[in-house]
Write a structure and sequence with these properties.
It contains five helices and three strands. Helix content is 30%, strand content 19%. With 98 residues, the chain is α+β, with helices and mostly antiparallel strands. A three-stranded antiparallel β-sheet has the order 1-3-2. The radius of gyration is 17 Å and the shape is elongated.
Length: 98
């Protein structure tokens, strides 16, 4: 569920998350949401890396798979809204994640 990450990924509600490695897509719908929420929630227990969308080059895939640039652009388009990001959260205590 888009936006459900705010409800589900809360170590205050589910303390077991403090030992988990987590990759989550973050949907920013208003000024109270975004990657900073997860940096605040998990910053004490996790290394939090924010990953954002990057521009893709159709030529990088077209030649490998015998596609035209137009076909490659269509294949590469995930129809994602720019502004969304991912958070990659790795436990600071590696023993806790094992």
């Amino acid at each position: 569920c888009e936006g459900g990450e705010y409800e589900l990924l809360d170590p205050g509600k589910l303390p077991q998350l403090t030992g988990a490695a987590i990759l989550a897509e973050v949907h920013t719908r208003n000024e109270h949401e975004g990657p900073q929420v997860f940096q605040d929630r998990f910053g004490d227990t996790h290394e939090v890396e924010v990953l954002t969308l990057a521009q893709r080059d159709p030529e990088s895939i077209a030649k490998r798979f015998w596609l035209t640039d137009a076909e490659a652009s269509q294949v590469m388009d995930e129809y994602r809204v720019y502004g969304n990001a991912w958070v990659w959260m790795r436990p600071k205590d590696a023993a806790a994640a094992a």
